[in-house]
Design brief:
The protein is mainly β. Helices cover 0% and strands 51% of the residues. The protein is built from no helices and 11 strands. It has strands at 2-7, 10-13, 18-26, 33-39, 46-52, 58-60, 68-73, 78-83, 92-99, 114-115, 119-124. Strands 2, 4, 5, 6, 9, 10 and 11 form a 7-stranded mixed beta sheet that branches. Strands 1-3-8-7 form a 4-stranded antiparallel beta sheet, with no helix packed on it. A hairpin with a 6-residue loop joins strand 4 and strand 5 (46-52).
């Protein structure tokens, strides 16, 4: 079993920055990747960014590339999401996820095995 706990969300002004964290605990030795998704009210959960646990290759949604940076600390079993140049359209609950698939499609929800409870990011204009 794996548990994921997100933190770092909050209320920020447009143009500001946040750094989200997601700490994984439990049986993480076979974890192959972690990702971030977000969901705004009335919308489907969408892919934001992902990172391979071994090798560190990163992937980004086109809407966030250049503004968001995903990183990891293997020793801490933690993934981070640095968010810059926030705008109101970034307002959403941000979820982290972990996959134990050796081969996975980084932007597919159903390829992730565990999910956190989410952290709210609200951007004011």
């Amino acid at each position: 079993q794996v548990q994921l706990v997100e933190s770092g969300g909050g209320l920020v002004q447009a143009g500001g920055s946040l750094k989200l964290s997601c700490a994984a605990s439990g049986r993480t030795s076979s974890m192959y990747g972690m990702g971030w998704f977000r969901q705004a009210p009335g919308k489907e959960r969408e892919f934001v960014a992902a990172i391979n646990w071994i090798g560190g290759r990163t992937y980004y949604a086109g809407s966030v590339k250049g503004r968001f940076t995903i990183s990891r600390d293997n020793a801490k079993n933690t993934v981070y999401l640095q968010i810059n140049s926030l705008n109101p359209e970034d307002t959403a609950v941000y979820y982290c996820a972990a996959t134990f698939r050796v081969y996975y499609t980084y932007d597919r929800r159903n390829h992730y095995d565990y999910w956190g409870q989410g952290t709210q990011v609200t951007v004011s204009s």
